[in-house]
Structure formats: C-alpha cells, structure tokens
Amino acid sequence: MGLILAILIQGVQMVLVLALAPGLVGFTRKVKARLLRRQGPSVLQPYRDLLRLVRKEAVLADNASWLFRNAPYLIFATTWVAAALVPTFAAGLHFSWAADLIAITALLGSARFFLALAGMDIGTAFGGIGSSREMLFATLAEPAMIMIVFTVALVAGSTQLSTVAEFMVHHSTLRVSLGLALIGLIIVALTENARVPVDNPATHLELTMVHEAMVLEYSGRHLAVIELAAALKLLLYISLIACIFVPWGMASQDDGVLGMLVGVVTWVGKLTVGGFLMVLFETAIAKMRVFRVPEFVGGALMLGFLGTLLLFVSRSF
Amino acid sequence: MPIAAALLSVAGLAGVAVVATILAAQRRAWATPIVYGASLILAAVLLMCGLLALLGGSAFQGAVHLPVGLPWIGAYFALDPLSAAFLVIVDFGAVVASFYAIGYGAHEEEPGRVLPFFPAFLAGMNLVVLSADAFGFLVAWEFMSLSSWALVMAHHHDAENRRAGYVYLLMASFGTLMLLLAFGLLAGPDGDYAFSAIRTAHHVPWLAGLVLVLMLLGAGSKAGLVPLHVWLPLAHPAAPSHVSALMSGVMTKVAVYGFIRVVFDLAGEPAWWWAVLVLILGSGSAVLGVLHAVLQRDLKRLLAYSTVENVGIIFIGLGLGLAFKTNDMTGAAALAVAASIFHAFNHSLFKSLLFFGAGNVLTGTGERDIEKLGGLVHRMPETAYLFLGGCLAISALPPLNGFVSEWLILQAILLSPDVPQWALRFLIPASGAMLALAAALAAACFVRAFGITFLSRPRSPAAETAHEVSRWQIRAMYALLIICLIAGVFPGPFLDALSPVSQMLVSGAMPKQPILPHLSIIPISESRSSYSGFLVFFFILMASWAAIRVIHNFASRAVRRAPPWDCGFPDASPVTQYTADSFAQPIRRVFGPIAFRAKVSQTMPPPGDMAPARLTLSLRDLVWEFIYEPLESVVLYAAERLNILQFLTIRSYLSLVFAALVLLLVLVATWA
After folding, report:
1. Which of B145, B151, B507, B568 could disulfide-pair with B243, CB 3.0 to 4.6 Å?
2. Hey, which residues 389-428 in chain B have their CB within 8 Å of chain A?
3. Is the ipTM of this complex over 0.85?
4. Using one digit for the tens of pLDDT, what is the confidence trace for A237-274?
C-alpha cells in the first residue's frame, strides 16, 4: 500500500510538472507584456498553441533523417525525466534516489546534445549557427553547474536533491559559498533557458538567436514537443533554485494529503515569484552580444569554483 | 589454471603471427579471415581466463615461473585481480577488433604489412599484463611497441605516416628507457627483478618518488599524457582503423596498467606530492586533449585527441586514489581507483566503437576529412546509428556508460575536503572543474563530429556516393554498443567485479552494490548519492514512448515532405552549410587565445578593389614550441659536438673505454 502510494505521488509530480510548465511560460509572457505596458496574450495561450501545433501535420524537409524525426521525443523525454526528479512540492519522493543533481545536469546535457544534432540535420546555415553557439554556451554553463553542485553538496553532504532540501530546511545558515552558488545558478539558469541577456525567446530572425535557430526547421507536433520541453526546463530551473535555496513549505514523504496540498500551493507560489523576478530582470537588462556571453557564463563558472574552493579551505564558509 | 591457458594462448598468437608471415608472403587471399579468425578465438580464450580470474576469486588466480628469458632468472607470470581486470579490457577489445577486421581487412591493399603484426601486437599487449617480473615486462612492452610501430607503418607510402612512425618510434624508445630506469631503481643494487620481491623490498622515499616521475614519463608517454602525447594523434590515425581502435582503446590502457602496477602495487607507500603531480598532468591532458579534438578536421585524429582527454580523466581518478591512499582514506581511495579503472574499461569500449565507425566511413567514402563528408546518415544508416551511440557514451551522457564512470570520479572529488594537505585541497577542486570542462567540451566535440560527418547535406561526391559496409564491421560495432548500454544501465555488477582490484591496490573496497531493489549504484552511502542507470533509461524510454503514442493516437501523425524552410531562403548549394571549422569557431575564439595563442587576421581590400579578402588563422601548438623544438635543437647541437667521436684513433677509443670502466666501478663502489 505504502509503495503504491509512493509511486502515485511520484506520478502526480510527473503530471504536475508537465501540466504547469506551459502555464509558467504563459505567466512570464503575461508579466513581461504588462511590464512593457502591453496587454499581452492570456496566460493560457501556450496551452492553446501546443494544442494547435500537435493537431497540425508535421512538415519535414526533404532530407530530414530519422534523427530529426525522433530527436524531439528524446529531448522531451530526457527533460521531463530530469524535471520529475527535482523535488517540487515534496522531498524524498519514491524515485528521487534514481538520479542526483549531477545526473539531472547530465540529463539536460543529453537533451541539448540531441537538440544541437537536430539543428544540424537539414544542413542550413541557421541550424548550424544555433547548434554551434548552444554548444559553446554549454561548454561553460555545464562546468559552472557542476561547480555549483559541488558547493551545494559540500555544504549539505549529499548530491541528492531531497537530502539537500531537508538539510537546508533544518540547518540553513547564511553562508558566503551558498550566496556565490545562488548567483552562479541564476546565471546558468538564464543561459540554459535562452533568456534575455543570453538569447531572446521572443524573437525570430535575429542573428543573435541560438535556441530558435536550432528549431527553425521544426513544425507541427515536433515543434510542440520541443516547446513543451523548453517550458519544462524553465520550470525545472526555477524549482531547482527554490528547492535548494528556499526549501521551506515543501512536504515530506510522510505528510498526509493536507501537507502535500500545502506543498503544492507553496511550490506554485515559488514558481510565480521566481517567474516574476526573472521577467523583472529580463525587462531591466539588454541582450548581450554573443561573444560577451562566454564572459557572463564564465562568471558563473568562477563563482561556482570560488564557492567550492572556499568550502575546501573551511567547511564553515 | 587460467594462467596456463592464457600463456598458451599468447604463444598461440605468436604462432599465428609466424603463420601469417608465411601466408602473406604467398599472397593468399584467404589469409585475412584465417588470421583474424584465429586471433579472435585466441583472444576469446584470453578473455575467458581474465573473466574467470577476476570473478572466480583466488582459486582461478595464480603465478607460474618458466625457465625462459634470462638464464639465471627465468620468467615470472601472474594473474592477480589487477592483471585480470586489464586482461579483460585488452582481450575484449582484441576480440571485437579481430571480428571487425574480418570485414575491414578485406579492403586492405597490402595485407602482408598488417596480418603478421596484428596477432603479434595482441600477444605483446597480453604479455605485458601477464608478466610478473621487470625483465619480462620490459621485453613484452617493447614487443608491443615495435609491433604496433610496424602497423603504423603499414601505409608507409604516405609521407605523413612515415613521419608518424618516426615520431612514434622515438617516443616509444624514450618511454621504454624511462621504464627501464624505473625498474632498475625498484630492483635496487641486488637486482631482484621479480615483482613479488620488489613488492616486499623497502624503497627509499626519494627513490620511490623518482620511480613515480619515471613511470609518468614512461607509461605516461605510451598512454598519451600531455605533454608526452605528441606522437599519439599522429600514430593512432595512421594505422588501419581496427588497429587504431586497439591502439587508442586498448594499448593506452596497457600503459595505464603499467602505471597502476608500479605506483600502486610495487613502489610502496605513496607520498602526498605524487597525487599533486598526477592530478596536474591528468587535468591538463583532459582539457588540452579535448580542446585539440574539437578543432580537428581529420575524423581519426579527432578521436585520437579525445583519447588524450580520456586518459587524462583516468589519471585524475588515479591521482585522487593516490591522494586518498596516502591519507588512509581507504573507502574514498577504493572509489577513485574503481572509477578510474571502470572509465578505462568504458573508454576502451566506446573508443573502439568510434574508431570502427571512422573505419566504416573510410571504407564507405574513402575520406577522413569531415569537411568533405556530410549526409551519411542516409547512405550509411547503421553506421550512423552506432556512431551516434559511441558519441553519446563518450560525451558522458546518461544512460550510457561514460557518464557512470565520470559521475563516480566527481563523487570521489566530493570526498576530498578531508584531505589534510593544502596543495591537494586547492588542486582537487581545480581538477574537478577541469574534468567538468573537459566533459562539456567533449559533448561539443562529438556534436560537431557526428553532425558534420553524418548529418546535413553531402559536401563532396565521395559523401554522396557512400555505401554501407560489410556485416562483420556492423556486428562488431553492435556488440560494443550493447556492452556500452549494459555497463551504463547496470553498472553495479561491473563495480562489484572491480572490488578485488581496489582491495588489492588500496586495501579497501566500495560498498557492495545492491542488485535489488533499486538497481542503483552507491559510491559511499545511500544518503550521499546514488544513481540508477536502469531507472533513468527506463523512464526515458517510457516518457518518449508515451509522448509518441499520445500524440499519434489523439492528435496527428500526418507528415508532409517539403523543401527546407531556412527562413524562406533555402540555398541548394551545400557550401552554404555550417562547416566543421565554422562550428568550432566560437569555441576557438573563446579558448583559442589561451590554449593555442590563436590569432585571426583579416585583410580587406579597399572598396572598389576586386581583390579577394583574406582571413588567416594561426594556431600554435605550445607543447611542440616550448618542449620539443628546444629539445630537438639541443639534441642536434650535442650530436654535432659529439661527431668528433667518430674520427678518433684506436688509442683514444681504448682510453675512453678505460675511463668509462673506471667511472662505472667508482659508481658501483659508492652505491653498494
């Protein structure tokens, strides 16, 4: 009975991240529009877009290969699994031991690998430019992420996110290293999600674009799945920051239905605040030139490294 | 007794080499399948011996003493957990390479230059792993070097290959010289060459340190540690592809074996600064190797540089192992050593897979330059599929095996703040950063390698008319990919199999990996970290299957083919695509100025002038410039000075001989 319940809660988590991800994107777009004094589309617009896209026929380029057709599903699946492994409304879910934070980072790396390959499949200049830049950013963002993981893991004594969250709830103190890790993680999150100082999620046909250039040849259900994966990734990063740095309100495995409900409500609240802060930052800052981005992401790498190094010097930092 | 069977098989391989020489001299067409088939069977026997000795416990291990070799010493051979583990790595690669070669060898223009040396090379590598005395080890090592040198020189009509062979020969002789000195120091003035005697002897700390340095130079040059790697990207691609796979995937592991054998097993207690040296060389190799790889246009050279990277990763693990061992942190040391040997095994799998893929591309198109390839996914679908698997594995992406071993090394790094030495405390997180950077760059490198070679549109007629290759080649690659997947999804049994090795090297072992209920691996304890490759794999499969089913059943499964969109301006010419160089340009721009002193200069003609604009790029290989070129000039200078020795009178020669004798006697008198 306990096992069935545990698996059920894990299933709820998987469905919930999937269901809320487009809503989060819709919410950020709405807030952005309001901050720019526009009316903006409804919060539900991404759901409608996805529904419309999956119903359309997929137009494939003449020379598209099997990789191009299957990559969207793999990208979606790896991102979804990664998102489902981040504690959102409850810690210590049944499958949370299946992968730690390093594995979650690597799962997102798998998704990126397929996305970059899909961008190169048709053989257009746009796809190539997108893939090439995406991989460049990843070469700095991924080690930065690993260094941030190190910092967090050295503080909490574990790379398991559930354990980290529980540690942070009970033993959290203000630490220099965690501050550095937080700033680094925000930079990585902005880079990985192709947000404003790095990339612009709202535009097409700009030579600065990265993510949009890779998916240019996609249409119909393939595009829908990729968009959904991108939304999941945004949700994942905000949940991740919340789980490590503001884990309060998260239910644990033993809590009853009420505790779980409280967990869900606080999690949605955290998502809202996180999305709002991100949009506020985006609105206040201009997009960077592509070759300034390595300095920006390299900053995250340095912060993460510094955090780790401080902890190697003394555990009390 | 596996050891007896193993030695008989090695003798058999030597016999096959002799038979192959005769057959090749008679130019028999059926010699190729016979020789490779025989090598396959003998390597399979050796693989079985290795597996038995590794999994069966001490009942299947053992040592023998044969009255061959030096008359008053004889030859010692032993099969202990360490040599068994590496016997498995060597012979799994050998079995698959022999199988692949039955198909690939049919395209060989001069089989007589390959066939005799292939079984000899296998025999040499096996003998290195099996021998248990310094003399036998060195003879086997040199045998392995020379037979592989002959294979590098198989296509000697190409001037580039001749140069590769020359550089390889120089570096191999240098390496063996260093090993000779290392074993000389270990054996001491009494000169007992058996490993069992060396192990029990007391070693003076500074002499043991010197042994470590000599081993880093000797085994490190064979493994491809920066800055001793220069021969590797020249020689590995020059050999036929199945031999490249063996050299990159397996021979570098034999070098790693030599290093582990001496440093962990024979040289006594390590000092903490050993770890510093190993970690610096390892992290330097990891990052420099992959930075070189990401800029290469030659597919096989790219793979060779990536070998340098992976050897660097293995040495980072070994460095951690030394750091923990010297501080008596046995659990952590066992984790680091097991992770590093597991990575050696994994690398032997996926590097062979990738070299076989490169061999298929070479068979199918005749091209190694990726700028002239493209679109092979349509014409060589199975090769593409298999090569992609290798790329995923080597880029350390879950759920494949490369990720598991790198994850374990990262977990070992997380245990290191308890190390008391300050130098190590600063160095270990830096190596962690380097490892993560290398892994991320490897992903970029292999997106580029696969994307430019197999995806996009064909860039040359050769790529347009490519054809799929023989079933032997494809099946060998399937075998490798399946093992890669199994090792990634069920790593637990593999780690359990390595526990006698870590028990032997650092007298500690990783916790026994539970088979059920979680199928996950646990490096130290469950609360710290765990990873279940099976569940991750299963979830990815289920999630993508569910997505496909839901969308196809409830939404749309219609597909229409149309010309590419490309923002409305598709250009039919394949030159408008991104090339390998343009793909690497951003990475070159970010890392190039530091690693290669990269300089780009443009000359633009003034407006109205019809002259072409020019872009020149200069990349400098700093290792060549700062180490090898000065060394070369010193050697040339010394050679010129010493030239007079050739024109002396007989009296001067005799007095020189006398002086040398006196010097040596004085040396012996003072040492003893």
Report:
1. B151
2. 392, 395-398, 403, 407, 410-411, 413-414, 416-417, 425-426, 428
3. yes
4. 999 999 999 988 888 777 778 888 899 999 999 999 99
